[in-house]
Specification:
It is a single chain. The chain has 279 residues and is an alpha/beta fold. Helix content is 44%, strand content 13%. It has a single domain (10-268), classed as Rossmann fold (3-Layer(aba) Sandwich). The chain has eight helices and seven strands; from the N terminus they run βαβαβαβαβαβαβαα. The chain has a seven-stranded parallel beta sheet with strand order 3-2-1-4-5-6-7, with helices on both faces. The protein is globular and about 55 Å long.
């Protein structure tokens, strides 16, 4: 008999149109949650909403999923979307902040605008989400999960903006875990290694480039469903951080225990091409 550890929980997921966010929404719904899903691409989250609502589990109150379009990098956008979801689902018990993209390029080739755009989405988007649900999480002693990366712990060349954003999220999670923990709110940091998602097929503005090849071999990449399962377990246990995947745990271990070796490996590694195969 299938267990439903999230039964009765209303979980909000940002960045749910694809990859890790979509996998988490599907997995939590399968575990009994009612999910509010947010992303920029209306057709993607509408399809995901329909898919989850078609599951038809009589134990879970309908609707099982509610979708709302928002851009987490814009003031007021995610807040309005959360209000629409809350009106249909009720107060939010748990949140997964997953919206983000990777700004490719050596730091000398990037502009201040590039860094600002990266931080607006990956960092301030998480803060906008947290502020918008903070009242619910406090009253319901809920859980706030942040999808970070192994780049919370290391800074690969060619990803300075992305690594800066993920280091900032780790700092936020560590401080918020203590501050909000006093009020019964759990804060979980999910740090996956390389994952098979669209992130390496996005251009400088974060938009998806359908024809772009993935520059990394498939055997190095985790399926997003594995990250979703790890995230769900961490949320249930209110674990401070979970690093997902062998390559991720190896990289984080080197960063902590043998940073000089990690720097050597990164120095000798070939640069990862930008979307479309452009270095």
């Amino acid at each position: 008999m299938k267990t439903a550890p999230f039964l009765g929980q209303r979980v909000l997921i940002t960045g749910a149109s694809s990859g890790i966010g979509a996998a988490i929404a599907l997995h939590l719904a399968d575990l009994g949650a009612r999910v509010g899903i947010i992303a920029r691409r209306s057709e993607r989250i509408a399809a995901l909403e329909a898919r989850i609502n078609s599951l038809g589990d009589p134990v879970v109150e309908a609707p099982r999923a509610v979708a709302a379009v928002a851009d987490v990098s814009r003031d007021g956008s995610v807040e309005a979307a959360i209000d629409r979801i809350r009106a249909k689902l009720g107060p939010i018990d748990q949140v997964v902040a997953c919206a983000g993209y990777d700004q490719f390029g050596d730091f000398a080739s990037l502009t201040i605008a590039d860094y600002r755009r990266q931080l607006e989405t990956n960092v301030f988007g998480v803060l906008r989400t947290l502020y918008a649900v903070l009242g619910d999480l406090r009253s319901r002693r809920g859980v706030f999960a942040v999808v970070g990366s192994v780049s919370c712990h290391l800074s690969p060349p060619g990803h300075t903006a992305y690594s800066m954003s993920k280091h900032a999220l780790r700092a936020l999670a560590e401080a918020a875990r203590i501050e909000l923990g006093r009020e019964g709110v759990g804060v979980v940091l999910v740090s996956p290694g390389l994952v098979s998602t669209e992130i390496r097929k996005r251009g400088d503005d974060g938009d998806y480039q359908a024809g772009a090849p993935d520059p990394l071999p498939a055997w190095l990449q985790l399926p997003p469903e594995r990250v979703a399962r790890a995230a769900a377990r961490a949320m249930l246990r209110r674990k401070a951080e979970v690093v997902v995947g062998f390559t991720g745990r190896l990289a984080v271990g080197l960063a902590r225990l043998c940073p000089w070796l990690l720097r050597l490996v990164l120095r000798l590694s070939p640069p990862v091409p930008r979307p479309g195969g452009v270095p």
